Amino acid sequence: MADRARGRLVASTSAGASVRLDPSASPRAGAIRTAVLTASGLRRLEAKKWLSGKYAGRAGAAVNVSVSPAYASDPGMAQRWADFFSSLLHGTELADLDAYIAPLTEVEEICHGDALGCYGSNHLVLMGEPNFGVTPESVARHEYGHHIAAHRLNPPWLAIDSGTKRWASYVGVCARTGAGTAFPGDEGANYALNPGEAFAESYRVLMETNGSAVGYDWPIVDPSFRPDAQSLAALREDVVNPWQGSSTTIIRGKFLRKEPYVERAGRHAARWGDPHPGQRAGRRS
């Protein structure tokens, strides 16, 4: 898992359409720029008061959910989010998730800047209601994609930067990184070519299209990472059957002194090069 906290977000104008802030546009124009959940952001999160608990989701998995006291009048909110997260395609990493739901102003304070959500060190922060035409569920799917990657192996890379093993192999992250067309972990100028972001967005698409890769938008990551059904199938396999690393087989024994091979047949014995028992030797020239 990556040591440094990193922020993630996706802004969606519909269930399957996502947008990112144009730095030249107003931050209230319907799209939001990427935020980073820094160490100071984590401290701000931990300093705030939360209504916290562990909730059993409908799918049976327990989820840690904390909601802002601003939502005290909605006692069912935490349970609804537990149901949501447990309904996502997930593995054992779900047990490590700490989800925080807060009004947008509090999210911006924690995540810093005009952010709808952020993720780092098992902490997933997002707004509790739609803002600017953006659904919190779409943000949550993207951020949960980062949580999955943070709990997967992809040596020599960090999966949170490069995506999970099978998915990254399918989309060619290694070759692309060498060619300068992918920039693992780059949250700055090369954000759109960051395979870590492409993976998180692909997970969102997996959830929102049920793996069909049909009927979705792809505006925040470079089109060269646009998922198809095969890449989503590889991603799904990485979620439900995490890559455990290359296997090594150790065979112990010792070599014996070389002897001519002997085939035994009853009382007969033959060495390689000798006539087989029951056969007559031919004449030698």
Task: Report what the structure shows.
With 285 residues, the chain is of the alpha+beta class. The protein has one domain (11-240). It has helices at 39-47, 77-87, 104-111, 136-150, 159-162, 165-171, 173-179, 195-209, 229-240, and strands at residues 11-14, 17-19, 51-56, 62-67, 98-102, 117-120, 123-127, 153-154, 157-158, 262-265, 268-271. Helix 4 crosses helix 8 (195-209), helix 6 (165-171) runs antiparallel to helix 9 and helix 8 packs across helix 9 (229-240). It is globular, with a radius of gyration of 28 Å.
Overview in brief:
This protein has 285 residues and is α+β, with helices and mostly antiparallel strands. Helices cover 31% and strands 16% of the residues.
Topology of this structure?
Elements: E1 11-14, E2 17-19, H1 39-47, E3 51-56, E4 62-67, H2 77-87, E5 98-102, H3 104-111, E6 117-120, E7 123-127, H4 136-150, E8 153-154, E9 157-158, H5 159-162, H6 165-171, H7 173-179, H8 195-209, H9 229-240, E10 262-265, E11 268-271
Parallel strand pairs: 4-5, 5-7
Antiparallel strand pairs: 1-2, 3-4, 6-7, 8-9, 10-11
Annotation field: number of helices: 9
Structural class: alpha+beta
Biggest sheet strand line-up: 3-4-5-7-6
Q: Could you tell me the mean pLDDT?
A: 81
Strand content: 15-25%
- Runs with pLDDT <50, length 5+? 1-34, 261-285
User: What is the helical fraction, as a range of percent?
Assistant: 25-40%
